[in-house]
Design brief:
Rossmann fold; globular
Amino acid sequence: MKFKYVGCNLCGQNNFKILQADGPFKVVKCKNCGLIYTNPQPEETRLLEHYRQDPHALWLKKQPAAVKKSWERRFKKVQAKRLKKVQSFKRAGALLDVGCGYGFFLSEAKFNGWNVYGVEISEGAVSYAKNVFGIDAFKGELRDAHFPDNSFDVVTFWHLLEHSIDPLGNLIEAKRILKPDGILVVAVPNVRNYIYRVAYMFFKLKAPKIFSQGLRKIHLYHFSVNTLKEIIRKAGFTPIKFDIDKERSALPERVLDTFAWILYKILRINLGIALEVYARKS
């Protein structure tokens, strides 16, 4: 696999310490700003090919019919809960979901009166979103969609930034296409998901890896509350709400996140499996 070395996407420095190694790939932490990322990274063409092959669809094909139906029901409930939280800031308008996948979230938003648009690099997922849900989905990267300035009331990144080769660039582009009073929504895995890590070690008798070549989904960036807050601010946004993205489809993860959510409400320490932030233009 071809790969390339990159500097820190948050501060631009190239001074880091190694946290984990997996063949040629290493998980490093920037000594300047604390951002944790995979370095070197697979080349962009290799990453795009990986996601165009739609690894989730390949996984889903192997599951029994009952598992597929159960997963779809739970996943639709997750999208409904996410939309409800978005609507606590904006009731309706133009909504763009970056990394929209099959369009389940956009379908829920469309049903509730939103004008919806999607961006997705997987050809199969774009086809599904268009043909099944009638969603206007662009196949490619956000920067290549060339949306006009001030186009959207809400732009969402549901678990997209950790896969992106340029998280900061994506956020800056989101600022350009958001209306002056628009809302940015970002959810990413929490690199400090210590409750999940302890449970994983208890049941698997080994520590979970931050990055592995064999994972179905390749994570290039690994955010904490602090680094997520800083990259959003650097892109020109002001965070207005941080939370745990506790809309998980698997029951064990929901149990762990419920415990993390209770601790968060008491101690204000976010140890959930994933982070969620809402922000406005600065």
